[in-house]
Structure formats: C-alpha cells, structure tokens
Amino acid sequence: MTTVSHNNSEPAIRIKGVSVGYATKVILKDLTLDIRRGEIIFIGGGSGAGKTTLLSNLTTLNRPLAGEIWIGGVDVANADEDALQGVRREFGVMYQLGALFNSMTVLENVMLPMEEFTSLPLGARIEVARAKLGLVDLAHAANKMPSELSGGMQKRAAIARALALDAPIIFLDEPSAGLDPMTSADLDSLIQTLNETLGVTFVVISHELASIFAIAHRFAMIDGKRGGLVEVGDPRVMRDSSPDPLVRRFLNRQGVAVHAVTASA
Amino acid sequence: MHARRDTITVVTDAQPLRISFDDSGGTLTARFAGRLDAVALTTHWDSSSAQLRASTSKAFAIDLSAVEHLDGSGLGLILGLEYLAANRGASINIIGATEAQTRLMEMARRGQDRSLAKSQEGFFEHIGSGTRAVWSFLRSFIEFRGELLRTILAAVREPRQLRVGDTLREMSVVGANALPVVALLGFLIGAIIAFQCMDPLAKYGAKLQVADIVGISILRELGPLITAILVAGRSGAAFAATIGTMKVGQEVDALRTFGITPIRFLVLPRFVACVCMTPLLAVFADLMGIAGGSVIMLSEGFSLRQYLNEVQHAVDAAALIQGLVKAGVFGALIAVIGCQRGLATNKEEGARAVGAQTTGAVVSSIVMIVIADAVLGAFFYTIGI
To answer: Is A234 an interface residue toward B (CB < 8 Å)?
Structure first.
C-alpha cells in the first residue's frame, strides 16, 4: 500500500538541491524550487538549458544526480520503484507531440489509464472519459483515431489523457510547439480554465513568451551555464525590473505579441 | 504489478462522498455531500445508477450544495446520471452548484453525442473494401517491381547510382554478422541428417552413402534454404522495420522532396547486399553442414578422407551452382519483400503498422522462398542439372 500525502500546507512539488544531467555531464546544479499547489508555473530557458532533462527527472523517468524531489510526501529522487508507482498517479504528463496511442480511438486513449489503475466498471469509465474529453472540447471526436485529429486537437486529447486519473499535477512539455498562435492561445485558455475550475497545478516547460505573459502565475528561468535556477517570480515583474540582465533580455525579446486569453476554454 | 489507484490512501480534509436519495412528489433528488471524486465513483456508480433506474419519477434533481470537492471523475458520475435520466425522458435539474462547478459541467457537456459510435462495416462494404485492398496491393506490388527493375538497369548503366558505402554497410549486416548463426545451424543440420540416415542405411550395409545424402541434400537444398530463412528472419524483418519507422517519421517523405527516390536510396543497397551475401552465406552453410556430417561419420569409424572422397563423388559443381542460384533468388525475394513491406507502412497507424509489416515481411518471405525453391527445383530437374 502506498501512502500519498495531500497536505495542503506543503508545496505540490519541492525541488531541493537537485543536480540533473548524465553520468558524464551535469546540466543543472543545485536547483531549489517550491512549486505551489494550484499554480501555473512555467519553467523556461534557452535551448540546451536543461528543461527537458529536468522534466524527465520530475516525472520520475530519470533520477537526479543529487538532491531531493518531493511529490505527495515521497522523495521521488531516492524512492524505490514501488513507491514511485504510487506517486506516478499524482501527476499526468502531456508530451510535446501528444504521444497518443495511434492504434486506439481518442476515447480509448483516455480510458486506458483508468482501465489499468482503477476498478471502475466499464460504463463509469466511459462516462468519466467522455466528461474529460468534454472538458477539453473534444467529446465530438471521442471515436476518432488520433491520426484524424489536427495538431492542436491531439494536444488537447493528450491533456484529457493526462487528466484521466484526476492527478493534482499536470506537466506539459512545450504545449505551443508546432501550433499556430491562435490554437496556442486556445490551449493556454484551456490550461487556465482547468487550473481555475479543477485546481490542477500546471508545470509547463516552455519558453513561449506569449503564453508566459498570458497565463503563468510564476516563471522560473533556468540556465545550465549559470548552474541552475536563475530567477523565479512574476514574469511581468521579472521582465520590467529583474536585477539579472539575462532574465530581462529573455523576457523582453522583440516582436512578442501577448495574446488575450478569453474566459471560456 | 501496478498499485491500483483505490489502494492509495489519500490524506485529505474533505469527507468521503455520501449520497442520499429522496423520491417523493414525482421528483427523485440525489443529494451529494463530501468529495465527489474517483473514489466516490468506484463506490457509488452502481448503486446510484440502480436507484435512478428503479425510480418512476419523471423529474430528476442533483443537489450539489454539500459537495466539498468535485473533480473530473465526479463530473463523469453527474454526466452518467444525467444521461440515464434523459434516456428515461426525465427532466433534469442541478441545484446548489457553485459557479466553478456549473462552469465545469457546462464544459464537460460540450459536444457529447452518443450516437457517434464507430460505424460497423456491412457485408457488401466488407467485400468492397477487401477487393480494393487486394487491388491496391497488386498494383503497388507491380509498380514497386517495375521501379526497382528500372533503378537496377539505371545503376548498371551508371554505377554511380549505387550508394557504395550504404551497400557495404548492409553487406556487413546481412552477411558477416550472420556468420555465427549460419555456422551453428549449418553444422547442426549436417550432423542431424547424417545421424538420422545412419540407422536405415546401415541395414543395407551402406553407411558410407550417408556422406552422399549429406552432400546432395545440403548443397542442393538445405544449405540455401536454411540460409534464406535465417536471412529473412534477420535482415528481411530489419528492412521492413527500419524503412517502416522511417516512413512513420516522415524520413521517406523528406527523401522524396529532395528528389531522391526511396528505391535508389533505401532499396537498391539492400537488394544488392542480399543478392550478393545470401549465396556466400549459403556456401558457408554448405561447408558447415558437411563438417557437421563428418562428426557423425568419424564417430562411426570412417576416416575424414573416406568421408570427403564420398561427398566429392556424390556432388558436382552443378549441385553447388544450383544451390548458389537458388540462394541468389531467395536473397532477391527477401530484399524485395522486406523493403516493399517497409515502404507500404501506413504512417498514420504508427508503431502498430511497423509491427504488422515486419511480421508480414518475414511470413511472405518464407512462403515465397519455399515456393521459389519448388519452382527452381522442378526447373533444374527438367533441364537435367
């Protein structure tokens, strides 16, 4: 039996002195960051800053070289495989390309985690999966195959699948990658709505300034060359008055159109 | 084993779900209190839907005023009950929902249309789509061979067309890397044939003729056949999987847009490698088979010289050439089928299509090898070799 603690006073994820990288190369060193419950936090940095490596450590695919990562009262950096299986129910992940299973319909993709990890009867699984597809406005595509969906729809279906087990934390890897600005803005507004209505904590790996300024409560800038975390805070404040020239330059890139997020998803 | 979600202890302040039903005055009211989540759904799905089915009321109300937490699974329960009520023609009323809960329910109800189930193919559609599939397969089969032949002829006229580096790399993978397994199988097949023939021939005092049987069967038939089956399993499958994965990853499309035909870039090196290396592997299998037979013969008291003399007496160059021609044809079949299967991968179906084409490549190759073996055997017999 795995005990996962939902103590509301604790952060959703506590990253303490974490170093990530590979055997021969340290990419991020001594990174400390608390991710608060119910926030939308963007983690960004230049190409090669270590964003994807950090994500693979946070989602327990790899272990950090040093430090602790606490999710649901378990240190996933040092826990055994049994404990990790319990913690993995605590978060959902949307991968950059969606990673939907091509041989299953959209509805079956969303039902798969429930089939594996709950004892819900079939009728209930179908209703829950339908509700989740409704949340991402894809109920009409429930019986389509992933290949019949556009890029933006595939990402929304992947979010529905990440929501399948009602995980309190959702990781999104580059949600805007490969999407046009309008579809990307729609996705941002969906993330914001799910955050407001379900209280889901969103950890978004992205350097998309339009999205950062539109929906991020906080922005954490990481940079491998500088060690680890450069600065974390309100992205607008950081843009205007960060003491760090790199942060100001990153958040003040020219030609960025901040898109308006409509209230409904 | 996976830990099931319901074994996780969730430490939380909110109370587990309680549902009370009130069926009076023509309205069935379900009052929810506590956490309306996945745990609640597991416990209450069957009982609440049974309650709704048993009721005769024409109005249905869901009271959410005492719900402390509603998540996506809880939404599933509400939607399911709404659907059941709607099916019975009952009016539905949600009361006591917060603004956020109302918003969530509105979002979840969007686009729900249960009539959109996957359409089943009728009998005639099934025949039609089957015929279409056979036709398109035949068409691609002929087109592929035509294009391959044209590419080979072009490469003969202009050898620069052949990518030598790729071809040598494929030769090494198809040929050199297969040597250990070909050696093992060849040796064992030779030994097994000698061993199985020894007893029946001993009855006629013809033990030495075991060498004839080993020589003829290995050189003419089994050497090339075993080699071809191995090459089909190792390399034919690899061709289909590699090219199939490239197709899924749009690498084949990229080649086409560069103006490079996949046949020249991907198929020709593999075809040349297979046609050249399968006969060489077959010669190696022949040698190992004869060596395998010698072990049994030596154990029966014959000398190595006696055995080799007998083998030499039984087989001639024609038998060896017959085996080599067969191996070359088998190699060509393996390369053509493996590459064609890879290129036929449906990129929309992804990983599953790659698996299906790889299996198809091995099965079709082996079937075609055996058919070609029979045809060539009859041909050589007819022309008297």
So the answer is: no
